[in-house]
Amino acid sequence: MIDLNASRVNHHSFILTGIPGMPDKNIWMAFPLGFLYTLTLLGNGTILAVIKVDQSLHEPLYYFLSILALTDVSLSMSTLPTMLSIFWFNAPEIAFDACITQMFFIHGFGVAESGVLVSMAFDRFVAIQDPLRYASILTHGIVGKIGIVVLTRAVCVVFPVPFLIKRLPFCHSNILSHSYCLHQDAMRLACASTHVNSLYGLVIVIFTLGIDALVILFSYILILKTVLGIASRAERLKALNTCLSHICAVLLFYVPLIGVTMIHRFGKHLSPIVHTLMANVYLLLPPVLNPIVYSVKTKQIRRRITQVFQRRKNRA
Protein backbone atom coordinates (compact mmCIF):
# COMPACT_ATOMS: atom_id res chain seq x y z
CA MET A 1 0.00 0.00 0.00
CA ILE A 2 1.19 3.50 -0.81
CA ASP A 3 1.44 5.93 2.06
CA LEU A 4 -0.99 8.53 0.77
CA ASN A 5 -0.04 11.07 3.43
CA ALA A 6 3.56 10.99 2.23
CA SER A 7 3.21 10.58 -1.49
CA ARG A 8 -0.14 12.16 -2.37
CA VAL A 9 0.06 15.02 -4.83
CA ASN A 10 -3.03 16.89 -5.94
CA HIS A 11 -2.01 17.63 -9.49
CA HIS A 12 -3.28 20.95 -10.76
CA SER A 13 -2.68 19.88 -14.33
CA PHE A 14 -1.95 16.94 -16.62
CA ILE A 15 0.52 16.66 -19.46
CA LEU A 16 -0.96 15.38 -22.71
CA THR A 17 1.04 13.33 -25.19
CA GLY A 18 1.36 14.05 -28.90
CA ILE A 19 3.45 11.49 -30.79
CA PRO A 20 4.97 9.22 -28.10
CA GLY A 21 8.76 9.37 -28.05
CA MET A 22 8.89 11.90 -30.89
CA PRO A 23 7.79 15.30 -29.56
CA ASP A 24 9.83 17.04 -32.26
CA LYS A 25 7.57 15.43 -34.90
CA ASN A 26 4.35 16.92 -33.49
CA ILE A 27 4.43 19.80 -35.94
CA TRP A 28 4.14 17.33 -38.84
CA MET A 29 0.81 16.12 -37.46
CA ALA A 30 -0.58 19.65 -37.26
CA PHE A 31 -1.44 19.94 -40.93
CA PRO A 32 -3.15 16.53 -41.39
CA LEU A 33 -5.15 17.11 -38.21
CA GLY A 34 -6.11 20.60 -39.34
CA PHE A 35 -7.24 19.13 -42.66
CA LEU A 36 -9.35 16.47 -40.91
CA TYR A 37 -11.03 18.99 -38.63
CA THR A 38 -11.74 21.22 -41.64
CA LEU A 39 -13.30 18.28 -43.48
CA THR A 40 -15.42 17.48 -40.43
CA LEU A 41 -16.80 21.01 -40.21
CA LEU A 42 -17.34 21.38 -43.95
CA GLY A 43 -18.89 17.93 -44.42
CA ASN A 44 -21.27 18.00 -41.48
CA GLY A 45 -22.03 21.69 -42.03
CA THR A 46 -23.00 20.92 -45.63
CA ILE A 47 -25.28 18.08 -44.52
CA LEU A 48 -27.01 20.35 -42.00
CA ALA A 49 -27.38 23.21 -44.47
CA VAL A 50 -28.79 20.98 -47.21
CA ILE A 51 -31.36 19.40 -44.88
CA LYS A 52 -32.40 22.79 -43.53
CA VAL A 53 -32.83 24.40 -46.98
CA ASP A 54 -34.48 21.50 -48.86
CA GLN A 55 -38.09 21.05 -47.72
CA SER A 56 -38.24 17.59 -49.30
CA LEU A 57 -35.63 16.43 -46.76
CA HIS A 58 -37.75 17.36 -43.76
CA GLU A 59 -38.38 13.72 -42.94
CA PRO A 60 -37.48 11.55 -39.90
CA LEU A 61 -34.47 9.95 -41.60
CA TYR A 62 -32.87 13.31 -42.32
CA TYR A 63 -33.74 14.72 -38.91
CA PHE A 64 -31.85 11.82 -37.37
CA LEU A 65 -29.02 12.47 -39.82
CA SER A 66 -28.95 16.10 -38.65
CA ILE A 67 -28.66 14.93 -35.03
CA LEU A 68 -25.82 12.59 -36.06
CA ALA A 69 -24.02 15.46 -37.82
CA LEU A 70 -24.40 17.72 -34.77
CA THR A 71 -23.08 14.95 -32.52
CA ASP A 72 -20.08 14.38 -34.81
CA VAL A 73 -19.23 18.09 -34.84
CA SER A 74 -19.60 18.33 -31.06
CA LEU A 75 -17.37 15.28 -30.54
CA SER A 76 -14.70 16.77 -32.81
CA MET A 77 -14.89 20.15 -31.09
CA SER A 78 -14.39 18.40 -27.74
CA THR A 79 -10.93 17.21 -28.82
CA LEU A 80 -9.98 20.26 -30.91
CA PRO A 81 -8.62 22.53 -28.11
CA THR A 82 -6.05 20.04 -26.82
CA MET A 83 -5.13 18.80 -30.30
CA LEU A 84 -4.38 22.37 -31.38
CA SER A 85 -2.48 23.18 -28.20
CA ILE A 86 -0.21 20.16 -28.63
CA PHE A 87 0.38 19.97 -32.37
CA TRP A 88 0.13 23.66 -33.30
CA PHE A 89 1.39 25.50 -30.22
CA ASN A 90 3.49 22.82 -28.47
CA ALA A 91 1.58 23.41 -25.22
CA PRO A 92 0.70 19.95 -23.83
CA GLU A 93 -0.34 21.05 -20.33
CA ILE A 94 -4.03 21.05 -19.42
CA ALA A 95 -5.58 22.12 -16.12
CA PHE A 96 -7.08 19.35 -14.01
CA ASP A 97 -10.62 20.75 -14.14
CA ALA A 98 -10.35 21.42 -17.88
CA CYS A 99 -9.25 17.81 -18.38
CA ILE A 100 -12.25 16.52 -16.43
CA THR A 101 -14.57 18.77 -18.45
CA GLN A 102 -13.15 17.52 -21.74
CA MET A 103 -13.44 13.95 -20.49
CA PHE A 104 -17.15 14.48 -19.75
CA PHE A 105 -17.90 15.85 -23.22
CA ILE A 106 -15.88 13.23 -25.13
CA HIS A 107 -17.52 10.30 -23.35
CA GLY A 108 -20.92 12.00 -23.37
CA PHE A 109 -20.98 12.64 -27.11
CA GLY A 110 -19.65 9.13 -27.72
CA VAL A 111 -22.62 7.64 -25.85
CA ALA A 112 -24.95 10.08 -27.63
CA GLU A 113 -23.67 9.02 -31.06
CA SER A 114 -24.32 5.39 -30.21
CA GLY A 115 -27.87 6.31 -29.22
CA VAL A 116 -28.40 8.22 -32.47
CA LEU A 117 -27.29 5.16 -34.46
CA VAL A 118 -29.86 3.07 -32.56
CA SER A 119 -32.54 5.65 -33.41
CA MET A 120 -31.59 5.52 -37.08
CA ALA A 121 -31.81 1.71 -37.01
CA PHE A 122 -35.34 2.02 -35.60
CA ASP A 123 -36.15 4.52 -38.35
CA ARG A 124 -34.99 2.08 -41.06
CA PHE A 125 -36.94 -0.77 -39.44
CA VAL A 126 -40.20 1.22 -39.40
CA ALA A 127 -39.64 2.47 -42.98
CA ILE A 128 -39.23 -1.08 -44.31
CA GLN A 129 -41.59 -2.96 -41.99
CA ASP A 130 -44.55 -0.57 -42.23
CA PRO A 131 -43.90 2.05 -44.96
CA LEU A 132 -47.56 3.15 -45.15
CA ARG A 133 -47.59 4.20 -41.49
CA TYR A 134 -43.99 5.49 -41.45
CA ALA A 135 -44.91 9.20 -41.35
CA SER A 136 -47.63 8.68 -38.74
CA ILE A 137 -45.37 6.63 -36.43
CA LEU A 138 -42.28 8.83 -36.64
CA THR A 139 -43.84 12.26 -36.40
CA HIS A 140 -41.78 15.40 -35.79
CA GLY A 141 -42.75 15.27 -32.13
CA ILE A 142 -41.63 11.66 -31.74
CA VAL A 143 -38.30 12.40 -33.45
CA GLY A 144 -37.75 15.34 -31.11
CA LYS A 145 -38.54 13.22 -28.04
CA ILE A 146 -36.15 10.50 -29.22
CA GLY A 147 -33.41 13.12 -29.60
CA ILE A 148 -34.06 14.40 -26.06
CA VAL A 149 -33.98 10.86 -24.65
CA VAL A 150 -30.67 10.13 -26.43
CA LEU A 151 -29.07 13.31 -25.06
CA THR A 152 -30.50 12.83 -21.56
CA ARG A 153 -29.25 9.25 -21.39
CA ALA A 154 -25.76 10.34 -22.42
CA VAL A 155 -25.65 13.08 -19.76
CA CYS A 156 -26.98 10.80 -17.02
CA VAL A 157 -24.61 7.88 -17.59
CA VAL A 158 -21.49 10.06 -17.96
CA PHE A 159 -22.36 12.56 -15.21
CA PRO A 160 -20.72 10.50 -12.37
CA VAL A 161 -17.41 10.13 -14.27
CA PRO A 162 -15.90 13.54 -13.34
CA PHE A 163 -16.73 12.98 -9.67
CA LEU A 164 -15.24 9.48 -9.72
CA ILE A 165 -11.99 10.93 -11.08
CA LYS A 166 -12.05 13.96 -8.78
CA ARG A 167 -12.17 11.81 -5.64
CA LEU A 168 -8.95 9.96 -6.54
CA PRO A 169 -5.55 10.99 -5.19
CA PHE A 170 -2.88 11.44 -7.88
CA CYS A 171 0.82 11.04 -7.24
CA HIS A 172 4.05 10.57 -9.19
CA SER A 173 3.40 10.96 -12.93
CA ASN A 174 0.80 13.33 -14.37
CA ILE A 175 1.51 12.42 -18.00
CA LEU A 176 -1.46 11.08 -19.96
CA SER A 177 -0.93 8.77 -22.91
CA HIS A 178 -3.23 10.57 -25.39
CA SER A 179 -3.67 14.07 -26.77
CA TYR A 180 -7.01 14.44 -25.00
CA CYS A 181 -8.46 13.35 -21.66
CA LEU A 182 -10.14 9.97 -21.26
CA HIS A 183 -11.48 8.39 -18.08
CA GLN A 184 -9.46 5.19 -18.39
CA ASP A 185 -6.28 7.14 -19.17
CA ALA A 186 -6.50 9.47 -16.16
CA MET A 187 -7.63 6.63 -13.90
CA ARG A 188 -4.37 4.70 -14.34
CA LEU A 189 -2.38 7.59 -12.82
CA ALA A 190 -4.19 7.39 -9.49
CA CYS A 191 -2.32 6.07 -6.48
CA ALA A 192 -5.41 4.57 -4.82
CA SER A 193 -7.84 1.79 -5.65
CA THR A 194 -9.70 2.40 -8.93
CA HIS A 195 -12.06 -0.58 -8.67
CA VAL A 196 -15.14 1.65 -8.52
CA ASN A 197 -14.01 3.60 -11.60
CA SER A 198 -13.23 0.42 -13.52
CA LEU A 199 -16.54 -1.17 -12.55
CA TYR A 200 -18.53 1.91 -13.52
CA GLY A 201 -16.69 2.19 -16.83
CA LEU A 202 -17.49 -1.45 -17.56
CA VAL A 203 -21.16 -0.90 -16.67
CA ILE A 204 -21.36 2.06 -19.05
CA VAL A 205 -19.83 0.06 -21.89
CA ILE A 206 -22.11 -2.94 -21.36
CA PHE A 207 -25.39 -1.15 -20.68
CA THR A 208 -25.03 1.58 -23.29
CA LEU A 209 -22.68 0.73 -26.14
CA GLY A 210 -23.07 -3.03 -25.74
CA ILE A 211 -26.87 -3.01 -25.58
CA ASP A 212 -27.00 -0.43 -28.40
CA ALA A 213 -24.96 -2.73 -30.63
CA LEU A 214 -27.27 -5.66 -29.86
CA VAL A 215 -30.38 -3.57 -30.56
CA ILE A 216 -28.95 -2.46 -33.91
CA LEU A 217 -28.08 -6.07 -34.77
CA PHE A 218 -31.56 -7.26 -33.79
CA SER A 219 -33.13 -4.46 -35.86
CA TYR A 220 -31.24 -5.57 -38.94
CA ILE A 221 -32.21 -9.20 -38.38
CA LEU A 222 -35.85 -8.08 -38.45
CA ILE A 223 -35.18 -5.84 -41.47
CA LEU A 224 -33.52 -8.71 -43.34
CA LYS A 225 -36.44 -11.01 -42.48
CA THR A 226 -38.88 -8.43 -43.86
CA VAL A 227 -36.83 -7.80 -47.00
CA LEU A 228 -36.56 -11.51 -47.78
CA GLY A 229 -40.35 -11.66 -47.70
CA ILE A 230 -40.61 -9.16 -50.56
CA ALA A 231 -41.39 -10.96 -53.81
CA SER A 232 -39.63 -8.63 -56.26
CA ARG A 233 -35.84 -8.83 -56.36
CA ALA A 234 -35.63 -5.19 -57.46
CA GLU A 235 -37.75 -4.10 -54.47
CA ARG A 236 -35.54 -6.15 -52.12
CA LEU A 237 -32.41 -4.44 -53.41
CA LYS A 238 -34.08 -1.04 -53.20
CA ALA A 239 -35.07 -1.64 -49.58
CA LEU A 240 -31.59 -2.82 -48.60
CA ASN A 241 -29.99 0.10 -50.42
CA THR A 242 -31.77 2.53 -48.08
CA CYS A 243 -29.87 0.92 -45.19
CA LEU A 244 -26.36 1.03 -46.66
CA SER A 245 -25.48 4.50 -45.37
CA HIS A 246 -26.56 3.62 -41.85
CA ILE A 247 -24.68 0.31 -41.92
CA CYS A 248 -21.51 2.19 -42.95
CA ALA A 249 -22.02 4.71 -40.12
CA VAL A 250 -22.45 1.87 -37.61
CA LEU A 251 -19.26 0.18 -38.81
CA LEU A 252 -17.33 3.47 -38.74
CA PHE A 253 -18.33 3.94 -35.10
CA TYR A 254 -18.12 0.43 -33.65
CA VAL A 255 -15.12 -1.06 -35.51
CA PRO A 256 -12.62 1.59 -34.29
CA LEU A 257 -14.23 1.44 -30.83
CA ILE A 258 -13.71 -2.33 -30.66
CA GLY A 259 -10.17 -1.87 -31.98
CA VAL A 260 -9.31 0.70 -29.30
CA THR A 261 -10.83 -1.49 -26.57
CA MET A 262 -8.94 -4.61 -27.71
CA ILE A 263 -5.63 -2.75 -27.97
CA HIS A 264 -6.16 -1.15 -24.57
CA ARG A 265 -6.91 -4.52 -22.94
CA PHE A 266 -4.57 -6.89 -24.78
CA GLY A 267 -2.07 -4.74 -26.69
CA LYS A 268 0.08 -3.45 -23.86
CA HIS A 269 3.15 -4.86 -25.63
CA LEU A 270 2.47 -2.80 -28.75
CA SER A 271 4.23 0.47 -29.53
CA PRO A 272 2.69 3.57 -27.87
CA ILE A 273 2.36 5.00 -31.37
CA VAL A 274 -0.17 2.25 -32.21
CA HIS A 275 -2.26 3.17 -29.16
CA THR A 276 -2.16 6.86 -30.08
CA LEU A 277 -3.03 6.17 -33.72
CA MET A 278 -6.02 3.97 -32.86
CA ALA A 279 -7.30 6.42 -30.26
CA ASN A 280 -7.19 9.27 -32.79
CA VAL A 281 -8.80 7.14 -35.50
CA TYR A 282 -11.63 6.23 -33.12
CA LEU A 283 -12.52 9.89 -32.49
CA LEU A 284 -11.65 11.49 -35.84
CA LEU A 285 -12.68 8.91 -38.45
CA PRO A 286 -16.51 8.81 -38.00
CA PRO A 287 -17.02 12.62 -38.05
CA VAL A 288 -14.92 12.90 -41.22
CA LEU A 289 -16.37 9.96 -43.16
CA ASN A 290 -20.05 9.99 -42.12
CA PRO A 291 -20.90 13.07 -44.24
CA ILE A 292 -19.03 11.58 -47.19
CA VAL A 293 -20.88 8.27 -46.87
CA TYR A 294 -24.30 9.92 -46.67
CA SER A 295 -23.47 12.32 -49.50
CA VAL A 296 -22.43 9.46 -51.79
CA LYS A 297 -25.06 6.89 -50.78
CA THR A 298 -28.12 9.14 -50.27
CA LYS A 299 -29.52 10.20 -53.64
CA GLN A 300 -31.54 13.15 -52.33
CA ILE A 301 -28.58 14.72 -50.52
CA ARG A 302 -26.21 14.03 -53.39
CA ARG A 303 -28.63 15.62 -55.86
CA ARG A 304 -29.08 18.71 -53.70
CA ILE A 305 -25.33 19.21 -53.22
CA THR A 306 -24.78 18.78 -56.97
CA GLN A 307 -27.44 21.43 -57.69
CA VAL A 308 -25.74 23.91 -55.35
CA PHE A 309 -22.37 23.45 -57.03
CA GLN A 310 -23.91 23.70 -60.50
CA ARG A 311 -25.61 26.98 -59.59
CA ARG A 312 -22.34 28.43 -58.34
CA LYS A 313 -20.58 27.25 -61.47
CA ASN A 314 -23.21 28.88 -63.70
CA ARG A 315 -22.99 32.15 -61.78
CA ALA A 316 -19.21 32.12 -62.18
From TrEMBL:
Q: How does it sit in the membrane?
A: Multi-pass membrane protein
Q: Tell me where the transmembrane regions lie.
A: 27-51, 63-88, 100-122, 142-165, 199-223, 244-267, 273-294
Q: Which Pfam families match?
A: 7tm_4
List, alphabetically, the InterPro entries matched: GPCR_Rhodpsn, GPCR_Rhodpsn_7TM, Olfact_rcpt, OR51/52/56-like
Which parts of the sequence belong to the G-protein coupled receptors family 1 profile domain?
43-294
Write the record's keywords in alphabetical order, separated by commas.
Answer: Cell membrane, G-protein coupled receptor, Membrane, Olfaction, Receptor, Sensory transduction, Transducer, Transmembrane, Transmembrane helix
Q: Which gene encodes it?
A: LOC103604936
Q: What does the sequence similarity comment in the record state about its family?
A: Belongs to the G-protein coupled receptor 1 family.
Q: What is the recorded name of this protein? A: Olfactory receptor
Q: Which organism is it from?
A: Galeopterus variegatus
Q: Which Gene3D superfamilies match?
A: Rhodopsin 7-helix transmembrane proteins (1.20.1070.10)
Recorded superkingdom: Eukaryota
In terms of CDD domains, this protein maps to: 7tmA_OR51-like
- Locations listed in the record: Cell membrane; Membrane
